[in-house]
UniProtKB/TrEMBL annotation:
Entry GO MF terms: oxidoreductase activity; tRNA threonylcarbamoyladenosine dehydratase; ubiquitin-like modifier activating enzyme activity
Signal sequence interval, chain numbering: none
Protein name from the UniProt record: THIF-type NAD/FAD binding fold domain-containing protein
Taxonomic superkingdom: Bacteria
Alphabetical GO biological process terms: cyclic threonylcarbamoyladenosine biosynthetic process
Domain (THIF-type NAD/FAD binding fold) ranges: 116-307
Matching CDD domains: E1_enzyme_family
NCBIfam families, sorted: PRK07877.1
Organism: Sporocytophaga myxococcoides
Pfam families the record matches: ThiF
PANTHER family per the UniProt record, alphabetical: THIF PROTEIN, TRNA THREONYLCARBAMOYLADENOSINE DEHYDRATASE
Length: 775
């Protein structure tokens, strides 16, 4: 680089921290000398002398009734200067960062002219009140728009600006500032902009941002602030600043540049108001301080701005953070609007015209939008009903069935039947829908599929329900065997289309045709078995344990169990599984099933329904929980589909998948309801055995479901690009598992060494699911 260039850059660099203009009144000898020195020593100074024009305006504004002729005006101007040297009048404002000097009216007259067009939207009395006000602004991206608008209106006399950030090129989508400010502190850039609009406004800059060390200075030095405007991203600072504002009884205003949300907290009028309307009660501030990545910050920020009320576009974008974008999006239009809105509200607070606290929206899209705006069609999930077969229906089904009549079976008492059916109810089921019903009559125990519970969409042809019915049969049989009973099972005694799935009879002494007792010892794990969605440590599972698990395949004719534990294959398989999980979330009906019907978002709905998926059992980080809440909105999902995005969904399942020790797979040779029922029994045997070895097991059924639906053209509403992706995933999956296209794929699962689950899923009460004919 040329020496000259280097010198110029270095010279400019020295100006970076300067934001105060130098004001010269040449009537004073001392300032006259200094000014002369300045214009001699500075080269390439630009000097703007438009004082005469300002004087002319001042005269005009002071004489609104007079329509002066040119001569009259000339006379008035001459009177104003009163033979004084015009250079000696007014103020010469020197802006060092721009190397320019502007000749201006002195403060009082300058303000009079500059704010004249405010009258009487702001009365002269109000103008005087506003001139006394001190406002502090933290965060000068949105804050820039607010500060400059307020400065233009002159709705304060002093402003304190805090931001530790410097201007970067990516800020220029929403901050209106010259490119020569790149690398300059945001606070300083705003201070300069204000100085170039009005050099008499008192500005104090805090280019280190607001922190515990300068909090007192910011809030109180030179008198307490009258209002704090919070536009900063620092979550801990947001809270700390509010604590201070509350202590000093200073109102706080915040604007989120999404849907023009404006938040007002009148700590001046309501000293006991909870911070942020109570939205952050219980938040650990120390934790807030340690949040580093944007992804970590998002859930807290969402809690503060209100997760359900943000715009669909912002919700959808949240899913792309640290996938295809680095941080949340903001637009200049919103920032500009926010500036105006905040300035208006702050002025009315200052002149006591507005005294409420609250949260307000000026959602332009809603206010100015097509009246016939198409809303995405809400999909009604079918299934998941809290409805059961009644006794008459049950008896009618049994009577219409061609059942084998046994008479040698044992009649077991009510408490025993309740005990063994209770064990059956502990079986796993898709989305914890518990699609079973039991009926006991004179030694015969009947198991029914409750089709109203089973989902129409995320349970293809009830096959997943059959898996869970198989699992519950296995529990029942193991428990009965533990109690010394032999069990005989008749599957689908009245055909596969009937809701009657199995009939059980119990015997003592033992019967040749009864179910074998090889796995009886597993009954002790029925209570312990659960879906564990905690991550893991990737540790390899002892090969003998894997062999033992695989050997269970011998208990079901034709069954195959595969357990994959080599890392390279696991990584490839994980990619396929993540793809399927993501596409499952992006499919409109499956999305509706999961978010509207399966998930229980809070303790109250967990306790009252006693079914579905308690969100806590998903073991999600705070970030992913927030992600889930964001992903709930159908419109956000349709946007992601439209943009061909949504990778964020892979993050949610991805972490756990990558931490697994192994992935297992269970298949049977042929597709049939029986295969899924038998398969379900094998699933439970395997799951109980994994529990015995203290292995965490989580079903990973997205690939099985999505491939079943793909095969049967049951994916209406899924965009073409996702269908193509699914077909590719299918090919990879078949190769990785080395399986044939036509087998019945029953179960895919993850095995890990993991912490016990945070919460266990609840079960519906026995009384709802077991009827005993007492006659
Ligand atoms: C057929 C079937 C499919 C399932 N699919 C998944 C799945 O894709 N992901 C998952 O995390 N859990 C899945 N589960 C586990 C259930 O959500 C779980 O069994 C249910 O919530 C009850 O909880 P528990 O297993 O802890 O008793 C599935 C269970 C069954 C029986």
């Amino acid at each position: 680089m040329q020496n000259k260039l280097i010198t110029l850059i270095e010279q400019t660099e020295k100006q970076k921290a300067i934001y105060k203009p130098l004001l010269f009144r040449l009537k004073t000898e001392e300032e006259f000398v200094k000014f002369n020195h300045l214009i001699k020593s500075e080269s390439n100074l630009m000097v703007f002398d438009e004082l005469r024009g300002q004087v002319k305006e001042l005269i005009k504004l002071r004489n609104p009734k007079k329509n002066m002729t040119v001569e009259e005006m000339e006379d008035e101007i001459s009177n104003y200067f009163d033979k004084n040297d015009p250079d000696k009048l007014g103020v010469w404002a020197y802006y060092p960062w721009a190397n320019k000097i502007v000749h201006l009216l002195d403060e009082e007259e300058f303000v009079e002219v500059r704010t004249n067009r405010n009258f009487y939207k702001i009365t002269p009395e109000e103008k005087d009140i506003l001139a006394q006000k001190k406002v502090g602004i933290i965060g000068l991206s949105v804050g820039q728009s607010v500060s400059v608008t307020m400065a233009m209106e002159r709705s304060f006399g002093e402003i304190r600006l805090a931001d530790f950030d410097i201007l970067e090129l990516s800020n220029y989508n929403r901050i209106r500032t010259p490119l020569s400010n790149l690398g300059v502190s945001k606070a300083i850039a705003v201070a300069r902009e204000i100085a170039e609009i009005d050099p008499y406004i008192k500005v104090k800059c805090f280019p280190d941002g607001l922190h515990e060390g300068n909090m007192d200075k910011f809030f109180s030095e030179g008198g307490n602030l009258d209002l704090l405007i919070d536009e900063c991203d620092g979550l801990d600072i947001k809270i700390l600043a509010r604590i201070k504002a509350k202590e000093l009884r200073i109102p706080v205003v915040m604007e989120a540049s999404d849907r023009c949300m404006l938040d007002v907290e009148r700590f001046d009028l309501e000293p006991d108001r909870p911070l942020l309307h109570g939205l952050v009660d219980g938040l650990d501030i120390k934790k807030l301080k340690s949040l580093r990545t944007n992804e970590e910050k998002v859930p807290y920020l969402l809690a503060m701005i209100g997760i359900d009320t943000i715009s669909s576009r912002l919700k959808a974008s949240m899913f792309e953070i640290e996938q295809t974008i680095t941080t949340w999006p903001q637009l200049a239009s919103a920032v500009t609007l926010g500036g105006g809105l905040t300035a208006d509200v702050c002025r009315r607070i200052f002149i006591n015209e507005f005294s409420d606290s609250g949260r307000y929206y000026m959602d332009v899209e809603q206010i100015v939008g097509n009246k016939d705006k198409k809303k995405p069609t809400l999909i009604e999930s079918k299934g998941f009903e809290d409805a059961y077969l009644n006794k008459d229906e049950i008896i009618a089904i049994i009577n219409s069935s061609n059942l084998t009549l046994n008479n040698k079976q044992k009649l077991i008492n009510e408490s025993e039947i309740k005990e063994i059916v209770s064990s059956a109810l502990l079986a796993p089921s898709p989305g914890n829908n518990q699609p079973w019903q039991w009926y006991y009559d004179k030694g015969n125990l009947y198991l029914f599929l409750n089709k109203k519970k089973s989902s129409a969409s995320s349970d293809f042809d009830n096959l997943f329900s059959f898996i869970s019915l198989g699992a519950s049969m296995e529990n029942l049989i193991l428990k009965a065997q533990e109690k010394g009973l032999d069990v005989c099972v008749e599957e689908f005694p009245s055909g596969k289309s009937s809701p009657l799935v199995a009939k059980f009879n119990f015997y003592t002494p033992h019967l040749e045709t009864a179910e074998n007792r090889d796995y009886q010892a597993l009954s002790q794990y029925i209570h312990l078995r659960c879906s564990n969605r905690n991550g893991g440590n990737k540790e390899r599972i002892n090969p003998s344990v894997i062999d033992n698990l695989i050997s269970l395949q011998r208990s079901t004719p034709g069954a195959t169990i595969k357990i994959i534990d080599d890392r390279a294959r696991l990584i490839e398989l994980n990619e396929v599984i993540k793809t399927c999980e993501r596409i499952r979330f992006l499919h409109p009906e499956l999305h509706a099933d999961f978010f509207e019907k399966e998930i229980r978002w809070n303790n109250q709905s967990v306790e009252s329904s006693k079914d579905g998926m308690d969100i806590r059992t998903l073991e999600l980080s705070a970030t992913d929980q927030a992600g889930m809440r964001v992903a709930k909105e159908v419109e956000a999902i349709s946007l992601l589909n439209k943009w061909k995005k949504g990778k964020g969904f892979e993050k949610i399942s991805g972490k756990n998948l990558d931490a697994a020790s192994a992935i297992g797979f269970i298949a049977l040779p042929r597709h049939s309801a029986s295969s899924y029922l038998q398969g379900g029994r094998l699933v439970e045997r395997l799951w109980l055995s994994a529990t015995k070895y203290q292995l965490a097991l989580q079903p990973l059924m997205a690939p099985i479901l999505m491939f079943l639906k793909l095969k049967h053209n049951d994916l209406a509403g899924l965009p073409e690009h996702l269908l193509t992706e699914l077909r590719d995933a299918r090919e990879k999956y078949l190769k990785l598992l080395n399986i044939d296209e036509n087998i019945a794929e029953i179960f895919l699962f993850r095995l890990a060494f993991a912490e016990p689950p945070t919460a266990r899923s609840l079960r519906l009460p026995l009384e709802k699911l077991l009827l005993i004919n007492k006659i």
